[in-house]
Amino acid sequence: MATAAPNTMEIDCINTIRTLAMDAVQAANSGHPGTPMALAPVMYTIWDRHLSHNPVNPSFANRDRFVLSCGHASTLLYGALHLTGYDVSLNDIKSFRQLNAKCAGHPEYRHCPGVETTTGPLGQGLGNSVGMAVAERFLAAHFNKPGFDLVSHRVIALCGDGDIMEGVGMEAASLAGHLKLSNLTWVYDANKITIDGGTDLCFSEDVAGRFEASGWHVVTATDANDVDHLDSCMQEAFGHELPTLVIVPSRIGYGSPNKENTSGAHGAPLGEEEIRLTKEALGCDPSQSFHVPSEVKDAMTQKALEQGAATENAWNEMFERYRAEWPAEAGQWDDIQAGRLPEGFDAELPTYAADAGSIASRKASGVALQSAAAAVPWMVGGSADLAGSNQTLLKGEDAQSAETPGGRNVFFGIREHVMASIANGMALSGLRPFVSTFLVFSDYCRSVHRLSAMMGLPVIYVYTHDSIGVGEDGPTHQPIEHVASLRSIPGLTVIRPADANETTEAWRSALARTDGPTALILSRQGLPTMDPDAVASATGVHRGAYVLCETKGGDPQIILMGTGSEVSLCMEAAEKLERDGRRVRVVSMPSWEMFETQDAAYRESVLPASCRCRVAIEAGATFGWERYVGLDGRVIGRDDFGASAPATQLFQEFGITADAILNAVSEIE
Amino acid sequence: MATAAPNTMEIDCINTIRTLAMDAVQAANSGHPGTPMALAPVMYTIWDRHLSHNPVNPSFANRDRFVLSCGHASTLLYGALHLTGYDVSLNDIKSFRQLNAKCAGHPEYRHCPGVETTTGPLGQGLGNSVGMAVAERFLAAHFNKPGFDLVSHRVIALCGDGDIMEGVGMEAASLAGHLKLSNLTWVYDANKITIDGGTDLCFSEDVAGRFEASGWHVVTATDANDVDHLDSCMQEAFGHELPTLVIVPSRIGYGSPNKENTSGAHGAPLGEEEIRLTKEALGCDPSQSFHVPSEVKDAMTQKALEQGAATENAWNEMFERYRAEWPAEAGQWDDIQAGRLPEGFDAELPTYAADAGSIASRKASGVALQSAAAAVPWMVGGSADLAGSNQTLLKGEDAQSAETPGGRNVFFGIREHVMASIANGMALSGLRPFVSTFLVFSDYCRSVHRLSAMMGLPVIYVYTHDSIGVGEDGPTHQPIEHVASLRSIPGLTVIRPADANETTEAWRSALARTDGPTALILSRQGLPTMDPDAVASATGVHRGAYVLCETKGGDPQIILMGTGSEVSLCMEAAEKLERDGRRVRVVSMPSWEMFETQDAAYRESVLPASCRCRVAIEAGATFGWERYVGLDGRVIGRDDFGASAPATQLFQEFGITADAILNAVSEIE
Question: Does A24 lie at the interface with B, CB-CB under 8 angstroms?
């Protein structure tokens, strides 16, 4: 390892990664060749010399996690996966960016073996890597026992200028430094080139200085092509007690006579002629495309497979001994790996009698969370500095920190964006994360919801202070469009419960969901607990919408529907209308997404097509409710911003009242 | 100024700011007293000794801009406004947080005189301040002439730990440092307390180090209560050639015997008893509430009014001489101050004939932007490192930088969030900003749209790559829910034009709008230019939706509607249906918001209630389209994520085709 003489085999391996990237992008006629060409030596160093993994089992629990935060450089990862023996064939690489190909434009989790997280939106991979590093430390604290280092892996993320500039990446760096995540290494591709040109157009930070000020160790490489040098940089990183940034001064499009070190190498195919010139310059055969020299494949694959098998076999053998000695812990470990919750996880969730009175759904949520967390020891999460308001501080549990690595309360700081991104990372490593802030600040982590959904991660977003019910804090703190806009995200289940019992069921649903995220939308203000004897069971939540209260006789003439705090207004209006001899049904609709997955017969049973006198009410944007009220119905809501005043006044002022429902009914008729 | 002896008048002024804050929060029974109590000396120092402004004219063009980024400390600002003679009475402060009060929970622009920007969502004020500082420098470069320092003001932002931790604040710092904004000063309230407890829970940055690494000058105050010391810190800041951070080690809730330096002082009233104790400790009369000693009011108000009048009078006198010497520039200046565009600003916007062929709407947008920018010299903007793709680089214009302060092309770097926040700041200072990125990354600046809208700022958001038409980059880069979720934001006008001519009209509309933001949603791929002789005029865009192509005979039986790239699919389907003898109307609906502002008669004329066979198509979430198709119609779109493949294949694969429209029609019938 300490030789300075060029190692031909290494150069061949590195150039194979480069040429595969060039050829794949050229064949697809789109993609990003420059970064893979530049970082092939880094990738080779990490994957051939350091990464502990088993290519035949990408799920090996104690594998090192490699995150390609600069996801546009996907061919770099695909090349490494192919060469180390993952189920990524040369044909897969040849079909880069084609429909249903494993090798998508950006790496997609669950889509291509060995891809640890879906990346592309910049900075997200860094946030994910922090979550993975927290998870590693947490799992080690909980599961490792004397003689049993069950959990002892590293998290390595590769990132570019975009990741480093994005606020979410900066938040990630700040929190990782604070948490002293010694198991975390970021390799920063400092190529000084962005799409618009040189980084000097917009970026002149002393990045090393910034990271050091944030509690990181920094290693600055001097040569992006010297494998032994890069190797020693990585070793220094892995050995340090702080998270470490390795800065690599690469040259984008390395080897390309006309495009190296230009933004022209970033996001477009090099072109056939330039590829030919580049291959010549690199000493590769320009007449061949997608060429993998057999000795390269043999060497890299064989080494990775042998080491992988040995590593996993040793670990498996250790785990069997562990199971004998620590059966309860081993059972929990199995659950985590399988994405299961413990038997009876929801047995102790609270229920509320009619006399429970007025309870804010955020409070009922807090009670449910405490119960769930007691049953599921790997629920870990917290708030962006609103734990008390969000009711998400786990009682009797430590803060997550270097001193208490098993701490389940993560204090994310006032960093909503990376909070959510970290939750994705924790979920990817098997934890059941929950994160929380005011609903209005879901905007700050907006981009993460869709990644949770795209990856099918059961992250629970706890969003409190869900409407103008926020009151005096005013329009900047009052969500209006937020429930609608969360509903528009594919794969995200949004639940806005109407009272304490619905809140319990909302939590039960969120916990039971293993294939995607859930957003719980919770009130600041107290909500009356509906009498369980007088209305339908709150288990109706699991069908998304249900007949909460049926008219006393015959088919309904009128359907009133709503969610959350407005359901009680429907009940109030229905009572008045029934007293006037009208037949009124009240439908509680806590989750549109869950309702949409019910069969047509159930949906028709709740909202019969024949009944067109429909009024929906929700203290927020009316947007989207026409799906359920149609052209003939009415929606009561608020399509402008809120105001600073006591909440009860605002509901009156903005006409979100039972009287407004009565008026709407009379308008329709 | 250099005396070390305590100045009783100063102390009285400072304590008045403190007690007003305590009393206002107590009366409202909600709010944030701790920071105003801590920062009253800082506020006094800035407002009494440094701020150049004229309280009787909050719009005085060359005033210093003061931004309270920690907007929850609003009573600090209200106190200063009251004491310096703004139209903010003691009664206004007494009605803090009540409906329609000037003194809202968080400061609201246009709502309370002297409030420069709406703050509350943390970090936004910092972004705004960068925009204001860029605007100051830009306007100085364009308007100042020898002997005429028309523009020479400072931008000062007060911020707390939240602002410093938020990614958007970090992005703002990074870009401000790069841009060397010497006119910018941030005062950082380093009180080491957040809502959840001490900052040591989540934050251990060397903030000074981080800012120095980002190109800032840093001044660390040693005493948060010594006005002379604070004064010299501010002087050092104002005199430096770099943006400067002044770190003030304050104690939250200063003066409160039981709550000082605790998170208990942050976000709740102190309580009557604690207020009494605090007033005693501060040497104030505990028997009085909302007490403003007459000598305090006299001293601060008189000084501010006198200086303000003198400053503005001198400036006005200078401006009259300027007008005589530089009449054209003075005219432009008037336009900027009035929020007007130059006469004929849209005269040169392009139009396209039928033979223009296929043009991506982002390309047509680029042409329109160049034309508009030539006519409006104070259009300034750029992209988050996608200027080429977004087509938003102004030709022949400089980059905004310290060396070229008049540069109109802002290279925001890969920092979408602060890009938008900066645009708000630029708009607040009179510029007409445009910002751009891929539509999918509108998520990263999500929270800013609503602030643009709430403040009524004519920011133009240029969002390209608007659908699965993105193609090979795959689901992370393909917007699905984004158009729907932007539509759900109150006050934001969303326009998705169908071809090059509609794109021109979309730009005309966005430019003409002076009271709020517009998001232009533009295609990556080419769109056929509709034959102006065969379809209705694209000026229909200004009504939001219009009958693009009417059935050849009688009333329509079928209405097909869509936006953007899907309008041509409607045309194709309509042609087939008409050939089959059906009467079909095609409605282009580029902007729901503009359509909703039309009168009922026009809306009925476009979408007659009697016609219920309606099909809508849009390459994105179907969410919300039921507003126009009702319970009986159909919506064709994509309610799941996209995929990585050539775009034309994706439209087929996901069934966003003319055939799908035909099928939907037959399903309805």
Answer: no
Specify the DSSP element, H or E, that contains A228.
helix A227-239
- B177 in contact with A at a CB cutoff of 8 Å? yes
Cβ-based neighbours of B516, under 8 Å, separated by 6 or more:
B452, B453, B456, B457, B458, B491, B492, B493
A453/B441 Cβ within 8 A: no
For residue B438, give the chain A residue with the closest CA.
A121
Query: How many other C-beta atoms are found inside a 10 Å radius of the C-beta of residue A264?
Result: 18
Q: How far apart are CA A77 and CA A47, in angstroms?
A: 10
Chain A interface includes B102 (CB < 8 A): no
What is the 8-class DSSP label of residue B268?
S
The amino acid occupying position B600 is A
Report d(CA A224, CA A231) in Å as an integer.
11
Report CA-CA distances (Å) from A179 to A164, A402, A424, A495, B498: 19, 6, 18, 32, 50
Mean pLDDT, each 10-residue run in order, chain A (669 residues): 66 98 97 97 98 98 98 98 98 98 98 98 98 98 98 98 98 98 98 91 97 98 97 98 98 96 93 97 97 95 98 98 98 97 96 96 98 98 97 98 98 98 98 98 98 98 98 98 98 98 98 97 98 96 98 94 98 97 98 98 97 97 97 96 98 98 96
- The size of the A-B interface in CB pairs under 8 A is 360
Distance of alpha carbon B22 from alpha carbon B39, whole angstroms: 13
- Decide if A202 and B106 are in contact by the 8 Å CB cutoff: no
Buried b (16+ CB within 10 A) or exposed e, A426-448: bbbbbbbbbbbbbbbbbbbbbbb
Q: What DSSP designation does B48 have?
A: I
Rounded to the nearest 5 percent, the helix, strand and coil shares of chain A are 45, 15, 40
Alpha carbons within 13 angstroms on the beta-carbon side of residue B77 total 33
Instruction: List, in sequence order, every residue forming a beta bridge with A259; answer none if it has no partner.
Output: none
Q: Give yes or no for a contact between B122 and B179, defined as CB atoms under 8 angstroms apart.
A: no
The pTM (predicted TM-score) of the whole model is: 0.98
Listed residue (A177, A183, A72, A185) closest to A118, CA to CA: A72
Q: Which residues of B touch A653 (CB under 8 A)?
A: 99
A402 inside 8 A of chain B by CB? no
Contact B504, B601 (CB under 8 A): no
Calpha distance A93→A90 (Å, rounded)? 5
CA B67, B439, B175, A133 dihedral sign is positive
Annotation marks residue A472 as catalytic = no
Structure tokens, B410:
């802002």
Give dist(CA A130, CA B668) in Å, integer: 51
Q: What burial class does residue A301 get, using C-beta atoms within 10 Å of its C-beta: 0-12 exposed, 13-18 middle, 19+ buried?
A: middle
